[in-house]
Amino acid sequence: MASPRLNSQMFAGPRRDARLQGRPRLAGCSLYILIVLLVLVLFESYHRLGPVDFGRSSPTPVRCSKVAHPVNHAEFSRGARVIDSLTTASLDIPIPDLYSSTFVDPDAKRQALTSHGPPSIPEAALGLFDDARALWFFAGAEGLLTVALTRPTLVTTVRLQGHGVARTCLPRHINVWGLVTPPDEQRIPWNLFDWPGGEFPLPLRAPFERERSYFTSSARPRWVPMGHSDHISPTGNSTDISVMSAVVTAQLPVHVVSIEFKRNWGAEYTCFSGLGLFDSLDVSGI
């Protein structure tokens, strides 16, 4: 028979263990709280700074539109559309070199050159096709490409997108025109029209005539010269044309931009790779 003292010791042991297990473990809780706080601090720092990308330099941010890269307002994906009535008709004959490419197999090359591919349409200049080598063709050396923008934009740079291949059909001399609507047209400086680009193209005059109303002092939108270049390189590289300082200084937003082709490099037809319109102040976002 076990002694009472032994029984008391047998039952006392587990009770002491239970009391020890029930006590709060302050050291473990403190370490857990410290880890949680450290994770929160690191997450807040990452959220504030964002991921850092080393090795790439970002272009100058666009003011007011709050993006970290230049925005091409002439892109089809951004809503820019060609105005057919103010654009030269596309060349309807097959262009065998609509896309420049090389083939190792001679049979594949022969079959590909007899294929016409997608039609030559002016939307190719707005980036409609995924292939950046796509060109828009029209007959002759003179023509127009008129593009409506989704919102009024103060354009500071006009870019002729590079094709990468030297061609005699690429433009050599172009003028750039922009449509300014009331009431912005009242701020047009009249000396802006004293420029060496040449006469205003007649096809651009009629479609935007408006009747004078009781509420407007001027009833007619006005085309203003934005810039020109009379010696564009035929190498197929991109060419940037700075918009005239008078247009930028007066902060004249344009709704429509028209590229007037004057000459190419000697071909019987003209080809054009792509149009870029970049802003530094988007007035619609203010």
TrEMBL record:
- Limits of the SUN domain: 79-282
Supply the alphabetized keyword list.
Membrane, Transmembrane, Transmembrane helix
InterPro entries (alphabetical): SUN_dom (IPR012919)
Q: Give the transmembrane ranges.
A: 25-43
Q: Protein name, please?
A: SUN domain-containing protein
